Amino acid sequence: MTHDGFLTTLTDVNSFDSPAQSFVSEEGVPNARGRVLGGSSAINAGFYSRADRQFFENSGLGWDLVSVNQSYEWVERAIVFRPQLRTWQSAIRDVLLEVGVHPFNGFTLEHKVGTKIGGSTFDRSGRRQLC
Ligand SMILES: Cc1cc2nc3c(=O)[nH]c(=O)nc-3n(C[C@H](O)[C@H](O)[C@H](O)COP(=O)(O)OP(=O)(O)OC[C@H]3O[C@@H](n4cnc5c(N)ncnc54)[C@H](O)[C@@H]3O)c2cc1C
């Protein structure tokens, strides 16, 4: 349930008390999924972003975008935090910019072309938050 336990959970799949179970995707990629209340959100990396607006427009479903935005705002008040970048997150940001993934959008929860710092469902003490 903490930042520090993230990798341990993924390397300790399938044991009796592990919240993670291994599987192989239809494309043949080895992966893990949550077998616990909260599902894979209980074992994931906690990266949070709003969807691309085109996702709603192209889905073929009649989304009520006012409700969608109100839902985003509720989730973001409840469980989304601005992350403190550690060494590896800073390194990935710098690598993306160095190889030309521009522009740099800074911290934003919106879906943006380029590089950005997104939200995290780990709070400031490193504890995972679930709805
Ligand atoms: C390692 C990892 C990192 C990820 N990182 C991110 C990230 O940073 N940001 C992001 O947005 N997404 C991330 N994801 C993806 C995201 O977590 C999943 O897409 C999402 O949780 C899927 O939700 P779901 O409700 O469809 O399925 P799940 O969350 O998998 O829920 C399925 C639930 O059903 C239960 N279940 C299954 N079969 C049965 C059964 N027969 N009987 C009873 N219960 C059953 C399972 O135990 C589980 O609780 C990550 C996923 C993984 C594995």
Provide structural commentary.
The structure is a single chain. The longest helix has 15 residues, at 65-79. A two-stranded antiparallel ribbon has the order 1-2. The chain has a two-stranded antiparallel sheet with strand order 3-6. The chain contains 4 helices and 6 strands; from the N terminus they run αβββαααβββ. A hairpin with a 5-residue loop joins β1 (20-24) and β2. It folds into 2 domains: 1-44, no CATH class; 46-131, no CATH class. Helices cover 30% and strands 16% of the residues. With 131 residues, it is of the alpha+beta class. Bound molecules: flavin-adenine dinucleotide. The site of flavin-adenine dinucleotide has 15 residues, from β2.
